[in-house]
């Protein structure tokens, strides 16, 4: 029996999973990062440790959590901790990779989860704020940004910097005293991006099937760096992995239903 191709959200979850290596400690956030992390554990990275933001440490296998505060994330965990101690894991170098989303992302991987609009006291929209976002991007060894890419979500200038990526480019992150490598990748429905080593500007790494540089640029409010030569096409999930994703990881389609519920 043939397997239907991956929808955009399933593609995102799969690419997230491929950014996880076996035996890593992975800080998991709500949504597709959670889906991708569980998929990685069920496929190519069975020995990872899942650390949930609410404090659950590597719970035993169960249903897909609705969020990082779902009791499933604590189910028979060897240890559960307060959020402050959970973030302290990152500060002490015990988190290899964390996944984050945001309302806005700029060319240096800085994130905005505070406001939309230029007037802080009278914004167009008031968002959730930092939560643990600033802690994670400031302290973990590596951060991967995950989200949907549009010119409004990827603007030339953020309305507010909540979580510092590579700040103003170059060595500005290190000079500010922040730990870790900062953002190392950005995953969207358009493609996968990294950051040019010297300038720290966002650069195309691969584009999903059918996507061109022109489409990627049209979905971005700043100029993307384009590498020389042919741009790779992002690997798509094989049928056996799609079966695991659909039937074992998120069978209720909480996060991978498309269009989203």
Automatic annotation (TrEMBL):
Q: Does the keyword Transport apply?
A: no
- Classification via InterPro entries: CoA_trans_fam_I (IPR004165), NagB/RpiA_transferase-like (IPR037171)
Keyword set, alphabetical order: Transferase
Extract the SUPFAM superfamilies matched here: NagB/RpiA/CoA transferase-like (SSF100950)
The GO molecular function terms of this record are: CoA-transferase activity
* Family stated for the protein in its record: Belongs to the 3-oxoacid CoA-transferase subunit B family.
The name under which this protein is listed is Glutaconate CoA-transferase subunit B
Could you tell me which species this protein originates from?
Thermosyntropha lipolytica DSM 11003
């Amino acid at each position: 029996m043939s397997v239907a191709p991956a929808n955009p959200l399933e593609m995102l979850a799969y690419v997230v999973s491929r950014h996880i290596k076996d035996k890593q400690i992975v800080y998991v956030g709500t949504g597709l990062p959670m889906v991708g992390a569980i998929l990685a554990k069920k496929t190519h990275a069975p020995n990872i440790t899942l650390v949930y933001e609410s404090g659950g440490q590597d719970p035993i296998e169960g249903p897909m959590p609705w969020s990082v505060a779902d009791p499933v994330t604590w189910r028979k965990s060897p240890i559960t901790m307060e959020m402050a101690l959970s973030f302290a894991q990152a500060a002490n170098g015990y988190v290899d990779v964390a996944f984050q989303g945001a309302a806005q992302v700029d060319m240096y991987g800085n994130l905005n989860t505070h406001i939309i609009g230029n007037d802080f006291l009278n914004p167009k929209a008031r968002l959730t704020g930092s939560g643990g976002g600033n802690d994670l991007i400031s302290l973990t060894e590596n951060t991967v940004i995950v989200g949907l890419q549009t010119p409004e979500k990827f603007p030339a200038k953020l309305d507010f910097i909540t979580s510092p990526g590579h700040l103003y480019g170059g060595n500005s992150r290190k000079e500010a005293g922040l730990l870790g490598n900062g953002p190392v990748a950005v995953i969207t429905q358009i493609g996968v991006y990294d950051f040019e080593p010297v300038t720290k500007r966002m650069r195309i790494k691969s584009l999903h099937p059918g996507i061109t540089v022109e489409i990627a640029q049209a979905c971005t409010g700043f100029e993307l760096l384009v590498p020389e030569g042919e741009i790779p096409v992002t690997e798509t999930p094989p049928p056996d992995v799609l079966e695991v994703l659909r039937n074992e990881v998120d069978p209720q389609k909480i996060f991978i239903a498309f269009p989203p519920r």
